[in-house]
Amino acid sequence: MAITDIDVFAHLTDTDIENLATELDAIRQDIEDSRGERDARYIRRTIAFQRTLEVAGRVLLLASKRRSAWWAGATALGVAKIVENMEIGHNVMHGQWDWMNDPEIHSSSWEWDNLGASKHWRYTHNFVHHKYANILGMDDDVGYGMLRVTRDQRWKRFNLFNPVFNALLALLFEWGVGLQHVEIGKIVKRRADQEEARRRIDEFLAKAGHQLVKDYVAFPALTALSPAATYRSTLTANLTANVIRNLWANAVIFCGHFPDGAEKFTKTDMVGESKGQWYLRQMLGSANFNAGPVMRFMSGNLCHQIEHHLYPDLPSNRLAEISVRVRQVCDKYDLPYTTGPFLLQYAKTWRTIAKLSLPDKYLRDTADNAPETRSERMFAGLEGFGDTDPATGRRRGLKTAIATVRGWRRSKRASSSGASGRVPGRHAA
């Protein structure tokens, strides 16, 4: 089951958690105090680059009868949409650049290149997801109402199609983003206020209609005026660009929330939650992936999902330097810092989604000790943790405790395997 007592799970005392909050607050303060022209120049140059790339893609599509121009235009446009959604739109709407007091680059005024209305996203993502991150029954991003990503979600027959639903969600990710705030499930079950539901639907249709006309009517019609292009060639290029953006955004976001080590929590665990416990939940519920400068930029710096969840309103270009200090804090308190190669992290999310398409009776691990579902109950019988090892002088906390339990499990499986492999009547060598 999900974590019900984060203090016990993390093997930290009240004083530890208080000190953890103080140290993480200090990192925030340092970054806030050092924000300035370098950061403002970064976001302005990023916006200029994205707009130039988009124009280049549109110009290339004026010759989209040629296969090379079609691919070049569709790719340039797809990358431009990725940069706009990931490094600009997502981060601007988080308020990361509000300190500049620039009305063009402000969370309240930015409208992104996506089917979802910005005002809807700011509520479902900025408020609900980040405040209640990975709390079952409160954070809709845990499976998006479609996918079973933890054993805490009761298995239903439609979960057999988990991989199919995930593939569709990846291809149509902007539709998932746009429809999330509409809460279709509540409307169908008649659990939503009719007036409020109608308002949300109207706002979604207005934004989605604008995007569909732009991508599939207006731009193809303009490009068709060129003798080297057709309406259809531009329409298919725009569709391809949107799919490129959808697949990449889905992969990046899933790598930050569903690989092994991204923990889930119960509603009871947030009752009376202190600032330190909130920080701890963000750290344990998120995951990073390894990335160089280009990958960081293309992911909107969400390769640093842990740091983003700790400081969602700090400039994205500072997350790399923040990550060094956060990792030091994790080492100090012996907390896991979940990261790994991008393809490996993404493969783990697919493995979880495929595995959980089956009923629990077909799964090997327990509901309290599985890669995607863990709780403090996995440490039953474990003693002497949460303090300092007298032999090494190092803290024995969550990271060491998990490694110890995993060691037990490996030994148990090895013993069982060895016993089953022995030939009756003979002694093992």
From TrEMBL:
Biological process terms in GO annotation: lipid biosynthetic process
Signal peptide feature range: none
Region (Disordered): 408-429
GO terms assigned for molecular function: oxidoreductase activity, acting on paired donors, with oxidation of a pair of donors resulting in the reduction of molecular oxygen to two molecules of water
GO cellular component, one term: membrane
One Pfam family of this chain: FA_desaturase
Chain ranges of the Fatty acid desaturase domain: 69-339
Domain of life: Bacteria
InterPro entries (alphabetical): FA_desaturase_dom (IPR005804), Fatty_acid_desaturase (IPR012171)
Database matches in PANTHER family: DELTA(5) FATTY ACID DESATURASE C-RELATED (PTHR19353:SF19), FATTY ACID DESATURASE 2 (PTHR19353)
Name listed for the protein in its UniProt record: Stearoyl-CoA 9-desaturase
